[in-house]
Amino acid sequence: MRPTLALALLLAASSAFSQTPDRTQLLMEKLSNAAGPPGAEEPVRAIMVPEMKPFVTTPITYDGTGSVIAQQGSTGPRIMIDAHMDELGGMVRRVTPNGFLTMQMLGGWLDQALVDQRWIIIGSKGPVHAVTGIRDIHIVSPAERTAVFNRDNLYLDIGAKNAAEAAAMGVAPGDPVVPDAPFMALNGTRNYLGKGWDDRIGCAVLLEAMRRTATMPHPNTLLYVATTQEEVGLRGARAASQIVKPEIGIAIEGGITGDTVCARPEESQIKLGAGPGMFLYDSSTIPNRKLVALVRKTASDKSLPLQADLVQGYGDDSAEMQTTNGGTPTINLVVPVRYTHSHNGIVNRQDFDQMVDLVVALLMQLDQKTVADLRDFTP
After folding, report:
1. Number of domains within the chain
2. What tens digit of pLDDT does each residue of 201-244 get?
3. Is 230 a catalytic residue?
């Protein structure tokens, strides 16, 4: 094949895969790329608050952990719609004399997800790039070649040759650490690759739903809450729920897909690209059964697909909302995510759009009579 023809075919293929990002994709990219491990959510909050401000009816408030509380309306049932801003990350624990750093992991990491990865440290002088190295195959023993490298043996390499050089870069114990994994639309598809989809995808749903309900007559007081420190014990949701005192709680999360080649049938039933999901059980909460039925009916009425799942080893903010205000009916709605709790996750744009449609339609159903029925357990 002539070189010019080969180049033309390559350019044509590249053009076929290209797409112009819309406003929503750009927002999702910004949220995914933002650095915000537990306790250091400032960059995410700096995105959320300006996006929320045009659509509130009262000034935005904050709880003592930094969660954002944005309100629409002032009459009717208090509905809390929640997504957490924090992502899995770490914190610098110690600077060694030879300039390497040890790291305290924040959130539920698998050891095998940590080795030979790029990271960004949020230092006092700005971002510092790092890598967790890996033992060289030429020198490890046969037993080490198939073993998981223990996190306690990991070090962050920032290129410093001693502790003084690390300090000069602005690195110190306690500095936040996040994965270095930039967003991309995966090969021209509507699948988006990036970090932090747990729960930046929920944050994006929150913002888009809020944008829509701002121009819709609804019978509720809607409280859109972006919480902190979910990955280390649902702490922000606990504090925010005490302030909001919700009558109904809706958590928006990243779901666990079971559609990859190594998945087992009982681990997860949710598939990427098959629509929004709903948890019927997780390790932290069991949803209100009447609310489950209402979600199903709403999805059916709007001709929206709805997946259902039960997942072990999973906790979400609805567990904290459930225990406030004398007991609150809650549900955890999820946008499917492949490869959660790792550097590189994948979400599907249609799943996201349909989740926004479902959340908005559900909010329109929750008038005073419906909420009272959801909270009524009279035999």
Report:
1. 2
2. 999 999 999 999 999 998 999 999 999 999 999 999 999 999 99
3. yes
